[in-house]
From TrEMBL:
Annotated Gene Ontology cellular component terms: ribosome
Family statement drawn from the similarity comment of this UniProt entry: Belongs to the bacterial ribosomal protein bS6 family.
Pfam families per UniProt: Ribosomal_S6 (PF01250)
InterPro entries according to UniProt: Ribosomal_bS6, Ribosomal_bS6_sf, Ribosomal_S6_plastid/chlpt, Transl_elong_EF1B/ribsomal_bS6
Keywords: Plastid, Ribonucleoprotein, Ribosomal protein
Organism lineage: Eukaryota, Sar, Stramenopiles, Ochrophyta, Eustigmatophyceae
Superkingdom of origin organism: Eukaryota
The protein, known as: Ribosomal protein S6
Gene Ontology terms for molecular function: rRNA binding; structural constituent of ribosome
Protein species of origin: Eustigmatophyceae sp. Ndem 8/9T-3m6.8
A single BP term in Gene Ontology: translation
Length: 103
């Protein structure tokens, strides 16, 4: 049986009280955890500090980090539980990326 990997893009919105170096360490932590769940082709991008449209937990600014990776869909649940429990995150967004279309 062939193992089918799906590509995903996760946007993590962190509280604004972390330096860029700390954010990279947090992003590498998530990448390492994704790797332990069987993900590959992990790409991390720091998207910067941005003003939020509306306050989230009394924060009007947040730091965005983008993670792109491929993983077997059934292995995604532990990652979702991990980000759900993290108090450093204001919000997270996960999108399945269609790899057949080229930009």
């Amino acid at each position: 049986m062939k193992t089918v990997f799906s590509s995903y893009e996760a946007i993590l919105l962190f509280k604004p009280n972390y330096s860029p170096e700390q954010l990279y360490l947090l992003a590498f932590y998530y990448a390492k955890r994704l790797k332990s769940f069987g993900a590959n082709n992990i790409i991390i991008r720091y998207r910067g500090k941005r003003r939020l449209t509306y306050p989230i937990h009394d924060n009007t600014i947040g730091d965005y980090v983008q993670l792109r990776f491929s993983i077997i869909p059934k292995n995604l649940n532990p990652y979702l539980e991990l980000i759900k429990l993290d108090e450093k995150l204001l919000r997270s967004f996960l999108l399945r990326v269609d790899t057949s279309t080229k930009l």
